[in-house]
Amino acid sequence: KAGAIPPLVNFLESKEKYRQQCAVVALAILTRDSPANSKAAGSARAIDALMKHKDSPIPEARDEVAIIVRNIFMEDDDYRDQFVETGGVSFFIKQLNAAGDSEPEAQVDAIHSLTLLMDVDGAGEINEDIVDQLNKAGVDAKLQGMEDTDHDGLKEAIGELRDMLRGKAHVSKLPGREWKPRSSLPMPIQHIHYNSDATQRRVRNRTRTSVPNVCMQRSTGRHDVHLRRFLP
């Protein structure tokens, strides 16, 4: 109501990296469980701005971008079409491929993103054009290679998406809109400083299941990254 979302969308296109990353964090929080905020972000053309960050070198930032665009397109199929037209399908496929075997929760997130993307009007009808794109990209083969897992939630998500891709399932039978992504609510925050790629990977591996959010901060003489860990 205070009109905070349009300025945040503008921050996404700022030349200053710390503003871009803080805008991603804020939009992830504001659009979570809020249809009104998600629609406001869509009206402010957030999808176009967010998709400019789909190749961010920071994995946690890409994760948050995926969550935000998902929150937006679930509220209106026009936003879904806009997301697809700006390379959304390939972005979600990259998210699936980037989630390592040691990160089952990230894999579940990526699979559910693809599941929700196929839903038409929230009515359970599968978008066959998106199914065709996923099949051409070899997603079913990727999922088949992930089936040897002890993670029950991941195994179930894989089976559901594979059934959809093979025309054996209807979205209304899936967890779809009842499913919630890993929490990014602003609970106690732990700041972790890291400078090297190796340290960044170690921090990410330790904190992945709590959905870290990354906020680039100003620094003098060096480019520190403050990993803001939102505890569930």
Would you mind describing this structure in some detail?
With 232 residues, the chain is mainly α. It is built from twelve helices and five strands. Helix 10 (139-146) runs antiparallel to helix 11 (152-165). The longest helix is centred in the N-terminal third of the chain and has 15 residues, at 17-31. The radius of gyration is 17 Å and the shape is globular. The protein starts with a helix and ends with a strand. The model is unreliable at 172-179 and 183-232 (pLDDT under 50).
Question: Keywords, please?
Answer:
two-stranded antiparallel ribbon, 5 strands, mainly alpha, globular, disordered C terminus
Describe, in short, the structure shown.
The protein is mainly alpha-helical and 232 residues long. 55% of the residues lie in helices and 9% in strands.
List the SSEs and their pairings.
Blueprint: H1 5-11, H2 17-31, H3 35-43, H4 46-51, H5 59-73, H6 77-85, H7 88-98, H8 104-117, E1 119-120, E2 125-126, H9 128-136, H10 139-146, H11 152-165, E3 189-194, H12 197-207, E4 213-216, E5 225-230
Antiparallel strand pairs: 1-2, 3-5, 4-5
Helix pairs in contact: 1-2, 2-5, 3-5, 5-6, 5-8, 7-8, 8-11, 10-11
